[in-house]
Amino acid sequence: MQKPPISKYRPYPVIDLPDRQWPSRTIDKAPTWCSVDLRDGNQALAIPMNVEEKVELFKVLVGIGFKEIEVGFPSASETEFAFLRRLVSDNLIPDDVTIQVLVQCREHLIRRTFESLEGVKRAIVHIYNSTNPLQRRVVFGSSKEEIRDIAVAGAKLVKELVPTLPDTEIVLQYSPESYSDTELEFSLECCEAVCDVWEPTPEKKMILNLPATVELFTPNVHADQIEWFCRNISRRDSVVISLHTHNDRGTGVAATELGLMAGADRVEGTLFGNGERTGNLDIVIVALNMYTQGLDPQLDFSNLNDVREVYERVTKMDVHPRSPYGGDLVFTAFSGSHQDAIKKGFAQMPEEEGALWQVPYMTIDPKDLGRNYRAIIRINSQSGKGGVAYIMEKEYGFNMPKEMHKELGKVVNAMADQTGDEITPEGVYECFQNEYIKVREPLDVIEWRSERLNDETVEGWAVVRHNGEEKNLRGVGNGPIAAFVDAVAGIGYSDFELLSYSEHSLSKGARSEAVSYIELKGPTGAKCFGAGIDTNISLASIRGVVSALNRLVKA
Ligand SMILES: CC(=O)SCCNC(=O)CCNC(=O)[C@H](O)C(C)(C)COP(=O)(O)OP(=O)(O)OC[C@H]1O[C@@H](n2cnc3c(N)ncnc32)[C@H](O)[C@@H]1OP(=O)(O)O
Ligand SMILES: CC(C)C(=O)C(=O)O
To answer: Which SUPFAM superfamilies does the entry link to (predicted)?
Structure first.
């Protein structure tokens, strides 16, 4: 990098709009969305989609609810042309969906584009030319007037060709490409000139698309540019103002949102932000951002995983694990305090459908996107007891007493620390099994039988293995646990106190089993839990006592 003074780059000029209105506006309705996945997204792929892949993605876009879909650049290649013909021949364009085609302002390309539209009911013909000073100089070697005339010639030719498709309603869209980098007055001049040719009316509008072809500055400048244009275009009621942002500075979403506040009506973008360089605007994000504000985005992402599966397969692009809403890790907490808060948030969410979503760290209910809760909490050495308890509960159905969370949390944390790895839910369960269930030394219970003698007394008989030796024991108490405690006193386990006991059935798993949790206090004052599982509830509690005794001995 150049050391200061930096001469290689310069700041972009700010816009003089002291009475700008957009900062105090909010977004209160969904814009008209236009997917450009099949065009801008496609043109940025190393291996562009073939016809079958485009058909598959087109159907997904229709399913999401896009009413405007840029299907390609039909004059660019046989594949692009064939795809549009396929949409027509297989009658794949629903009546309420308008397809859009892009073309440069060049005669042979515009004519070819019209050929591709035969049989389409309604189409947006999108013409563009670069208008910014750099491209005027290095690409076109043309004056402003000559650049404006390219656009005018393109618009005239489109108008002239409209009668060749009498059954097709044609809407004109014009993009002063690189609007973001063009003098505002000059972009306006080109757009006004195209409007003069097309003569839009409030009943028959045309679309003026103002692309941030390359994102060059902060989103507020983009908003200023859009507000300035909306205020200055002469036929505001006859034109739809459209945004088309890219993401070179990583703020395409913000630029679009501020652009909507600045008065735009329409948004072009792609799923997961696929597109040239750093990508186009990610429509999933903007739409779901609206949804999280209680606004109907008019796009349905209730099966985001399915959308993503098709997207990744046909584009051969990956959705980044941290991509908002769609990424693998966006609903996952590894760290203890996040897990604790999420677990508590879930526990306190009212059950009724439509209850206000209030789970800490989660802006949206993953279920609204068809995503499950499985990966919300994942365990590594940054995790805490709450996360471990959550896994035990959600994955395996164990509602451990709160005081026990600490114990198991410590064991799992030590394992994660030692391995340096993530501990899968299976790993957490294995820890639980090893720590509580498979502890059969020095004491193990082989058989247990009890009988209630009267209201106050239960008698119990146990066959136990103690330090490898089998023993028959007998005890009495006011319940089975007390009888067992009395029985094991005979082999030296007398100096402990039963602090708590709880049990529940295990709904998950093939057999219907019960689990008991027993907390004991040993002679040194040390406390520890035990857990027992059995199909017989009474035996489950005895196993819980044995588990706690063995752990107390070990401690
Ligand atoms: C910002 C965007 O995303 S714009 C969309 C970009 N998408 C694509 O380019 C994908 C599809 N494009 C293609 O397949 C090809 O580029 C085609 C078929 C459109 C044109 O192919 P070719 O004519 O062989 O080549 P190429 O694109 O290099 O043409 C460049 C010429 O077009 C001119 N040109 C470029 N854009 C435009 C435009 N919008 N309007 C008029 N002329 C243009 C250039 O000035 C250049 O002119 P020159 O030959 O006099 O120097
Ligand atoms: C053709 C235009 C709209 C474009 O893709 C861009 O400027 O990025």
So the answer is: 2-isopropylmalate synthase LeuA, allosteric (dimerisation) domain, Aldolase, post-HMGL domain-like
